[in-house]
Design a protein that fits this description.
It is a single chain. It is built from three helices and seven strands, in the order αβββββββαα. The chain is an alpha+beta fold. The protein starts with a helix and ends with a helix.
């Protein structure tokens, strides 16, 4: 009897974790990336990691305007995200140069009233940047966004 009780207690955390809702958008079937999700008050973050554990794409859905200054001089490529047109921006870290900065991008997309998406790409090369921008273009966050808004987050 004691063994059954101990085993059921050991399984409890696993069961609780398995029941946590998952809100990150579906990744294309042809990718080896996997999402790591974090829920907070007013936001959902999704971090796409490659098989080596490197974060290559980060997405935050939020009900608050991120108010990030993305100036015209930092504009890089045009793109789309969840059906919205956007510009990708080069990162500006106070004029300081860091390795691989040319292959990193950020953007903010207003998805609706009090509903925003911030997307960061941390590519290791210009080629990977293009691949990740194409992947981001395929993501649909409408279901996750609706959840964020309906939960009052």
């Amino acid at each position: 009897m004691k063994i059954a009780l101990v085993l059921s207690l050991l399984l409890l955390p696993t069961t609780a974790l398995a029941q946590q809702p998952f809100y990150c958008p579906n990744l294309p079937a042809n990718t080896e990336l996997q999402w790591e999700q974090r829920l907070g008050d007013g936001f959902i973050t999704c971090k796409a990691v490659d098989p080596d554990g490197r974060q290559v794409l980060n997405l935050m859905l939020t009900s608050r305007d991120p108010d990030i200054a993305l100036g015209r001089p930092l504009r890089a490529e045009e793109g789309r995200f969840s059906g919205k047109e956007l510009y990708w921006y080069r990162l500006d870290l106070g004029g300081r140069a860091f390795p691989d900065m040319e292959s990193r991008r950020i953007t903010v997309v207003k998805l609706g009233k009090d509903h925003y998406a911030q997307v960061w790409i941390n590519a290791a090369s210009i080629q990977e940047l293009g691949t990740l921008q194409a992947l981001a273009q395929q993501l649909d966050v409408n279901d996750a966004s609706a959840t964020l808004l309906s939960a009052g987050r």
